[in-house]
């Protein structure tokens, strides 16, 4: 191996190490990005005391919604397509709990 080849190989290794280090740093910084957390409570609850997980689970009917006997692609509460009236998604505490449940179980980032 000539001196130019060893220098090129060394430069490639240094560049690869730099790229890997940058990737590791960015991955560590964003490790919790988008995961459900209490950080969004001020947006969800607007100054009132956040609901407990038990209350959200009970009001949203989560035990029935996530049954092992139902397919993953089956809607538990489909909308009435024959109606032309707007649907109020926050009419009851149960409806609001279904929204909170979504933010407690799933990521809020794509």
Rg from Cα: 25 Å
List segments where confidence is low: pLDDT < 50 over at least 5 consecutive residues: none
- Structural class based on helices, strands and sheet pairing: mainly alpha
Mean pLDDT: 84
Q: What can you see in these coordinates?
A:
It contains 5 helices and no strands. It is mainly α and 110 residues long. Helix 3 crosses helix 5 (93-105). The radius of gyration is 25 Å and the shape is elongated. The two termini are 48 Å apart.
What is this entry, summarized?
This protein has 110 residues and is mainly alpha-helical. It is built from five helices and no strands.
Q: Which keywords apply here?
A:
110 residues; elongated; 5 helices; mainly alpha
Topology:
Elements: H1 3-29, H2 41-45, H3 53-60, H4 62-65, H5 93-105
Helix pairs in contact: 3-5
């Amino acid at each position: 191996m000539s001196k130019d080849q060893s220098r090129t190989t060394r430069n490639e290794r240094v560049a690869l190490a730099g790229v890997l280090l940058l990737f590791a740093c960015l991955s560590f910084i964003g490790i919790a990005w988008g995961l459900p957390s209490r950080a969004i409570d001020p947006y969800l609850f607007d100054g009132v005391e956040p609901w407990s997980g038990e209350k959200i689970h009970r009001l949203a009917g989560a035990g029935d919604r996530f049954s092992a006997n139902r397919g993953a692609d089956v809607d538990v509460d489909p909308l009435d397509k024959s109606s032309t009236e707007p649907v109020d998604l926050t009419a009851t505490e149960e409806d609001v709990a279904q929204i909170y449940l979504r933010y407690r179980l799933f990521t809020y980032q794509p």
